[in-house]
Structure formats: structure tokens, C-alpha cells
Amino acid sequence: MQSKRRFLSESRRQDKAQPRFLPRWEAPQPCSWPDCAAPATNGHKDKVYCASHLLKILQKEWQK
Question: Which of 2, 3, 4, 24 has a CA between 20 and 30 Å from the CA of residue 12?
């Protein structure tokens, strides 16, 4: 049981680096991608992105 508990706590730590949906009560923000006028719906690494640009950012990170 202890190993499972450790695994759960580690996975929770990793979740912090995962993209998160911005709460509805948060004011709409412009996408952090240059020249994108779409409203941001997701936050990742202290920046906010629209869905399509978030996908591009994550694809670049996965390729590294």
C-alpha cells in the first residue's frame, strides 16, 4: 500500500506542470502566442494559450 501512496503523490506533483483550464470566473486573457487574437482557455507554465496554440506548445515540448 505504501508504494501506491507514493506513486499517487508523485503523480499529483507532475499534474502541476500539466495544462489547466482557466476557471470561468477568471477574466478572459489574450493568448500568449505571438499574433494570436483568440481568447486563452488554458494555462501552461505561467502563460495562457488558446487550445490550438497550447497543442503546438505541448507538441514542441514532447519532441525534446
Answer: 24
Q: What gap in Å lies between CA 56 and CA 59, rounded to an integer?
A: 5
pLDDT band at 59 (very low <50, low <70, confident <90, very high): very high
pTM: 0.62
The range of the structural domain enclosing residue 56 comes to: 2-63
Residues 6+ apart with CB under 8 A from 45: 17
Q: Record the cell numbers describing residue 44, joined without a space.
A: 501552461
Question: Is the pLDDT confidence value at 45 over 60?
Answer: yes
Residue with cell 499517487: 8
* DSSP letters for 17-52: TS-EEPPTTSPP-B-SSTT--SBP-EEETTEEE-HH
Query: For the chain, what is the domain count?
Result: 1
